[in-house]
User: Which sequence fits this backbone?
């Protein structure tokens, strides 16, 4: 019953914010860096995303509700006689949560969706402040796309990168409450033809 009461209270909280949230413009995200690297064990994508967390989302975090981000990448092989062929894809799922007892922020990172039943195989990092934790979310480092034998090492590689705040993993009352609220629309997509650089 405790969790039910919290969710009901937070649903009311979101409803009260719905009017001003529509009046404000959403915080757009941008991709400031996108790079392909070849290492001994495969091909990796490094990306840097720039965005600011709206006050509403930050307040929800501070009330103990986790939020989720997803970074996705697709790599193609150019074909002059047909549409480009997708040769690699990868995703990174991130769960950001505030730990009231320790007053620290925890970031879970996994190649598969993170569910409430367990974090599975994931990397856990703890941060003292929210800005430090958000830096970890914004920096998508070493996202493995595949082996060099599958991708090839010549020419430019068409890459599509997507990043978003995943509201589908919020508790059910929140999924209803955030509909139409610009503050929850943090997403960006960027496509580029990238050279394959040697990892330093």
Assistant:
């Amino acid at each position: 019953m405790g969790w039910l009461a919290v969710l009901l209270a937070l649903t009311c909280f979101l409803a009260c914010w719905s009017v001003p949230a529509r009046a404000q413009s959403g915080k757009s995200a941008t991709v400031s860096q996108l790079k392909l690297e070849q290492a001994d064990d495969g091909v990796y994508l490094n990306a840097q995303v720039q965005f600011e967390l709206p006050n509403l989302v930050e307040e929800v975090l501070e009330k103990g509700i986790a939020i989720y981000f997803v970074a996705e990448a697709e790599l193609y092989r150019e074909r002059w006689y047909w549409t480009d062929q997708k040769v690699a894809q990868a995703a990174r799922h991130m769960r950001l949560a505030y730990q009231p007892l320790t007053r620290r922020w925890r970031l879970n990172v996994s190649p598969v969706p993170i569910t409430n039943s367990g974090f599975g195989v994931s990397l856990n990092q703890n941060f003292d402040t929210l800005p430090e934790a958000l830096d970890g979310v914004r920096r998508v480092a070493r996202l493995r796309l595949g082996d060099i034998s599958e991708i090839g090492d010549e020419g430019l590689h068409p890459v599509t990168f997507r990043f978003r705040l995943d509201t589908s993993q919020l508790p059910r009352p929140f999924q209803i409450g955030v509909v139409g609220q610009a503050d929850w629309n943090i997403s960006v997509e960027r496509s580029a033809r990238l050279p394959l650089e040697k990892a330093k």
